[in-house]
Amino acid sequence: MSERATPQERFADAYVELLPLAALMGHSAERDPRWPLGDKARLVSDAQLGCMRRVLSPVEVRTAQRQVARDYAQAHADTLAADLDVLEGGAARLIGQAMREGAGLPAEGERRAHATAEETRALAAFARDARYASLRDATGLTALAEGVSASAERRGQEIVNTLTVNFLTNAFLRCHIPVKLLY
Questions:
Q1: Mean per-residue pLDDT for 102-131?
Q2: Fewer CB within 10 Å: C terminus or N terminus of the chain?
Q3: Burial of 47 by CB count in 10 Å (0-12 exposed, 13-18 middle, 19+ buried)?
Q4: Organism's domain of life (predicted)?
């Protein structure tokens, strides 16, 4: 990112790094021609399935995420500097890297980098500090601050569900597929 990038664009970059949904969805689409509907793909036309796959393509998802991030940055101008500090300080990289690894995706860049002490502190602050509650909520990562009553796998699945539900719902609507197929 250029040094002259606006704080809003830097935030959008950090947001996409934090939530690598475009990469995760692209990976899923590559692995399964019926994705995102799986067995329910038989209930829709080929055109509808193709529409869903286009709407959920990495380019579309990344574009939508960047807009969500810009909207957040504009609405939270008073906390944007602190939000940027914690995300750019390591929280975005570490959480994004964990999500990518959990999905079996390679780390971005040359190889996986180990967390520095500063990055670990940024991650801990993002996950637990009350001043980042709005940021956690906006990113769908509020579960990071909640108790550890569920297994890590279950919490991870809940986070993924939270992060993807809006994209899936939008795809169903844009592609004229009854949302009840989700259930």
A1: 83
A2: C
A3: exposed
A4: Bacteria
